Amino acid sequence: MADSSSPSSSPRVSARALPAGIWAMGFASLFMDISSELIHSLLPLFMVGTLGASMVAVGLVEGIAEATASITKVFSGALSDYLGKRKWLMVLGYGMAALTKPIFPLAHSMGWVMAARFIDRIGKGIRGAPRDALVADIAPPALRGAAYGLRQSLDSVGALAGPLLAVLLMLWLADNLRLAMWFSVIPAVVCVVLLVVWVRDPEKPADDAKANGKRLRWSSIRELPLQYWLIVLIGAVFTLARFSEAFLVLRAQSMGVAMALVPVVMVVMNIVYAAGAYPAGAASDRMQPRTLLLLGLALLVAADVVLATAPNVWMVYVGAGLWGLHMAVTQGLLSKLVADRAPQALLGTAFGMFNLVSGVALLAASVIAGWLWEAHGPATTFWVGAGFAGLTALGLLLAPGAREAPQTR
User: Fold this and answer.
1) Do 299 and 248 touch, CB atoms closer than 8 A?
2) In terms of Cα–Cα distance, which of 7, 316, 302, 325 is closest to 153?
3) Which of 7, 21, 31, 38 is the most buried (most CB within 10 A)?
4) How many angstroms separate the CA atoms of 14 and 5, rounded?
5) DSSP states of 227-256
6) Neighbours of 51 (CB within 10 A)
7) Alpha-carbon radius of gyration of the chain
């Protein structure tokens, strides 16, 4: 997939050139990810070790949770287009996630965990598409890749800090999972306060507001162009090629890592993700997207192969680092491509549909990964992931029109 706008000729820009609202959303993501990843880095251990869940159950919980978020994003994205306002939908979503944090340490059955993950992911779904569309609303078009990269980078710093905090708390609290999870409440509250105080919807002309008010209908989806649906397809195939990161945590545990140190695998992944997300996002403003997509798939294949063959925990950390680099290269790029290919008046709807399709793919991938793990072991799970990622790269290379240049708005 090429881009006719010759992105390589675009000048390099500083993150300081990005609007303050982008930074505020980035830091809000950072604090919520500290909260969420503190929970998520301990939750697989809690489900399997404390509540006695199977690997298939872990995959099902994670897959259903993410699919729920993705389905919700369709409606929240369309609603934000209809209202012409995105901030308060975003705040509602983050607020719901904050309210679920105490439920996890209080849970005494998988039903409670499922309920908390369900509500948390509904919150993620409500905030996701309006937030991604608001980034496109606020950022200058020439800096969209950098804007998505910055938000993702700060998000990843939080995703790094959360598991690191989990390790420190587990060491301090002598592996008390429930008590450690209570600390997730504090950064979640900080996140909501940041958004309420610092983020504003941009002012829109009255004509634009009236146009948005006519868009809350399913037929609006037909107005999304073919090039947008190609990006949706690519995003779904990428998601099928990987599965929930809960399996990275369980892979570390399978190598005999002490419970308090298992979240280190997420720390390693997110160090690389955080370091690479902004440079990769900025690069997407200059480089051909097809080149970056192929690079991301190559990194995913490498990560899966390393995780499948890892003889010790150090190689598991190497695999996690490659996984994080793959995420850094691809996630901001896919968001930029959605924003570039969708009509301005349908940005929320476009992000919602993109995340719906990706979420269904993640549900399938996570359930299959859990079944493969139980039936054939951890190595087979990662070998199958590597094979699917390799086939995806081959398809991207051979697809008709892959070398043609889609127009950029």
Assistant:
1) no
2) 325
3) 38
4) 21
5) HHHHHHHHHHHHHHTS--THHHHHHHHHTT
6) 16
7) 20
Whole-angstrom distance, CA of residue 295 vs CA of residue 302: 11
Q: How far apart are CA 249 and CA 241, in angstroms?
A: 18
Q: How far apart are alpha carbons 6 and 12 in whole angstroms?
A: 14
Instruction: Say whether pTM exceeds 0.70.
Output: no
Helix or strand (DSSP H, E) at 52: none
Residue type, 26: G
| Cα–Cα distance list, 240 to 41, 296, 358 (Å) | 22, 14, 8
In 3D space, the residue among 163, 320, 158 whose CA is nearest the CA of residue 252 turns out to be 320
**What burial class does residue 16 get, using C-beta atoms within 10 Å of its C-beta: 0-12 exposed, 13-18 middle, 19+ buried?**
exposed
CB 96 within 8 A of CB 123: yes
Structure tokens at 145: 């890749």
**Locus of tokens 């570390």:** 252
H-state helical runs in 183-312: 185-198, 206-212, 226-240, 246-254, 264-284, 289-309
